[in-house]
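This part of the workshop introduces the protein records we will be handling. To make this concrete, we reproduce a full record directly below.
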Amino acid sequence: MKEFDYLVIGAGIAGCSLVHFLKNYSSSILLIDKNEDVAFGASGAAGAFLSPLLGKPNKFKDLVTKSLNFSINYYKEFFSDELINCGTCRIPKNQEDEEKFQSYIPFMDFEYEKFEEGCFFPIGSVVKPYEVCKKLSKDVDKLFNFNVTKIERIEDFWLINNEIKAKNLFLTTGANISLIDEEYFDIRAVWGQKIDILTSSKIDINYHKECSLSKSKKIDENRYLVSIGATHNRFNKDMKNSSYNLELANINKIEHNEETKEIIEADIQKLLKKANDIKELNNIEVIDVKIGARASSVDYFPMVGKLVDSKKSIEKFPHIKNGTHIKNENLIMKDNLFVLNGVGGRGFVLSLYLANQLVENIFNNKKLDDEITNYRLFSRWAKKQK
């Protein structure tokens, strides 16, 4: 049986960022994914746009600003070939949105200028999802096409499918939280679709209105490659008989059933309509479509760090259920089990920053911000268990 000091389940941008920073401290790392390669889930279906969050000051905006500054600088220094920094124009959706934009102007965190119908941010960029994840996870042992169905704590190790042992286990599985048996760990799957098109229209920068439109890449004398993303679908019915199934692997390489095809085609038309509302696109040919499920927490903040063991914590402090406050450090945690999840549609902005924060917390005892830890969700959940 193979043993590793650090095992990461999930090879999207969160998992690949995590192994990248773990490499600074250990060579005994294994990255596992049910798909055949990195970035084959939501990360591969992402537009991977990097742009500021607009709004009045709040903790989530502060987190995005810190993460964007960190990530842009990191991509520039270590992955410049995968970064396209051409600026992004943010355009209000309607008059109400325009009024909001005006109210946000005193609180802009990044340099901007008025441009066309919106605001142009020079920091706005896009990265190549697959190439970034591939390079982040370089020189790390990997196991693909491996579906983890069981994790179990045995003595001082985590046992994976009764086949692999790990001293420390990290779950970066996004919207699929089937391996986490904790009711408070509440993740919502938001399915998104990105399309790549060929068009005779040249786009000079990135745009964002109701969708994101990438700067074009010249293919030949008359054609340009443009990416458009993304849709937002939350299904209220059971989708297990479609490709919108969190248990499926390699969903963008399988044959879709009719229901899935109908949703995909409808979303293509939505994206093309929204993109044409930004810039007129002529002679369009859709050449690639990818779907994936983004992971969003109930309060939209990411979930980072150790997991609270709810059963043992309530057994030790039953009055938690009456609303009594218990210091976080006194709660019972699951041994050597960590998560990095809930990055939503800003995975390529948040993940590098959060992964670095988590690794520095583990190895150098750097404190994690309260709003990104799992304590907050446990506390809210526990008070409802009367």
